[in-house]
Amino acid sequence: MGYDPKDPLKDRITDIGPRDYKEFLPSVIKENYGKWLYHEILEPGVLVHVSETGAKVYTVRVGGCRLMSVTHIREICEIADKHCDGYLRFTTRNNVEFMVDDESKLKPLMEDLESREFAGGSKKFPRGGTGAGLTNIVHTQGWLHCHTPAIDASGVVKCVMDELYEDFQDMRFPAQVRISLACCLNMCGAVHCSDIAILGIHRMPPMLDHEHLDNMCEIPLAIAACPTGAIKPATVDGKKSVAVKNERCMFCGNCYTMCPSMPLADEEGSGVALLVGGKISNRITEPKFSKVVVPFLYNEPPRWPSTVDAIKKILNAYVDGAQKYERLGDWAERIGWERFFEKTGLPFTGHLIDDYRFAYTTWRQSTQFKF
Amino acid sequence: MAKHKTPMLDELEKGKWPSFISDMKQEAESREKTNVDLQAPKECVDDLLGLMELTYEDKVVHWKHGGIVGVFGYGGGVIGRYCDQPEQFPGVRDFHTLRVNQPSSKFYSTEYLRQVCELWERRGSGLTNMHGSTGDIILLGTTTPQLEEIFWELTHNLDQDLGGSGSNLRTPSCCIGKARCEFACYDTQAVCTDFTMEYQDELHRPAFPYKFKFKFDGCPNGCVASIARADMSVIGTWKDDIRIDQDAVKAYTGGELKPNGGAHAGRDWGAFDIQKEVIDLCPTNCMAWDGNKLKIDNKECTRCMHCINVMPKALRIGKDTGASILFGAKAPILEGAQMSTLTVPFMKIEEPYEELKDLVEKVWDYWSEEGKNRERLGELIQREGFQKFLEVCELDADPRMIQEPRSNPYIFWKEEDVPGGWERDINEFRKKHQR
User: Fold this and answer.
1) Are B304 and A34 a contacting pair at CB < 8 A?
2) B84: confidence class by pLDDT, cuts 50, 70, 90
3) Residues of A with CB below 8 A from B337's CB?
């Protein structure tokens, strides 16, 4: 029984899709599906949802790493078996949720979660990530498993979350703060609508491996991949290759995605950009994009101090200045971006003025500014 | 005993936040000791740690570009990955990823997760992502010969299929929906599963110009970020009145209930002030409070969710629920980031979802025909215009679809817009107008 390499199509099963979610719902969820009336946050990381049947489900939300070993998942299963009848759930932001149907089951569950630490001393299951506070950072693969990253992902996230750990476990912010990280402009994490986005960028045009380029790449695809038309065909030492007009390069890395003989990543050239003020929700104001407020910071493994420091500056100014319910971007727009840079202490440079498509829509065309 | 010295990574074991390095180390140790007949290299996690340490020194990634691997008959679901220092780190010479289609809204039984763990410890690195950015369970790192074995075991023993990658339908995802949220305007989990099953062919066999994502948000709070991340964003909404429990409103104003479900409890914001915190923040000014009764002019409401979020026990979404359908969101590559554009203001979302399926199939036909290689739907709509897109969708223009009317007068009139068409006789013209 099992896969037979000599007859790969034997008994092949395809197109069966995912498992049916209904199999995995705890009974209190199944019984009250679509009947929920309201919810409350009892304390950071602890929610109660109340059904019209009178039933309640208590949820304990804990932060998790996106990277998770089977050993760790088995530990999560052990906890869910012990306290939650063998069910659990993951959130869209890499948090884990343990649910119980009775308040008396909460305390033992919370104590159990609280007690578990990794050998290095970090918490395995920090409770929090609810309400007007910081929730977990969603991120991409970074140096751990991606081929186009400008920065690491898991490591940077660990450093930022260590520094903001108390805010994961608190709800002192004016509104929720969503931090996201994408390790290159491809933005597998689609961080462009986050309160704070950590983005990996490049600053050097691709190197050209002329010797092998024609064998490794479809040259027309590499040429077509360039949004600014900076790549053209060229013959170098009798071999078909490409030439890049460096002054037109916008460092997007799209050519490298199509052609491995055009690597961009560099110790000096690649690093972190920070964007702020985006949001997804339609609450009060419309969804909006994040804006670049720090054009470049060096990769500083293992603890990325400059990135962590800049994020803290932004958050501190926001928490001091924003009104209740005001998202980071709404605060920045209310006080004005000139004030944002003053309050955060971040330097404003020409790199932050848009010069791509529709750039002029972001320039000030009024006399309404603040001194 | 660790195979490689990792002084820089060890710094990431410090601090309170869960350390992925500590977790990797415990997995490396477990592989060292286990009796399981490991099919992927025993030292792969050790070598991954070593490779990461080298990357932390070099500050440039050590994974090679792609590599075409997969399982027979599928064009997605497996991401090829090779290390560029295979002699030094043979355990991660080839270290491919499988995307496993997660169940809608990511509830699990421990029985199922243990099956995944058993399979992945034996046939892979034992490292996962729970979950990847699009929503799949990511099985991170195995060798080429294991891919078909894993697929066989997944489909035969776990009744579980792979997710999407490449130029195909990516694994759809949804918010928690009716399972545990009072704001869900339609059954996001049911639609997400239904669409995933209906479009298995599109999910596994790349036939599109580029990737295509469905995301299903149950309400305008947008917990799966569909408006920013999905080519087709389905966002729950309602047409009728917000349901008000006036007694509960008074309980909020009287301080018996905590505003926003207690979300602001970490700081003293003073007593709840309904005028300041709800009425004055309403983006359309459609609410009024006279100290006794809350009134909402529902016709003017744009369903931003703020008042409902603040007073979840007093206010409920309406009963005539459905969804708004928006198209075209994407990350910046290439033309800049786009959010989805409102295309169908309201649609009932009920089984078997024929109307929504008809719509998406029209959109796919158009995009497949007109889209350039690696052109996302949103970029095609920008290139050819939203009016063209409405024609494709067979929808009439509606002021709800725009932020504001155009400010330039360069309307691309069509011949049929002008009675009598465009054909004219210059000689007839000259009879009245000298040269």
Assistant:
1) no
2) very high
3) 187, 192-193, 289
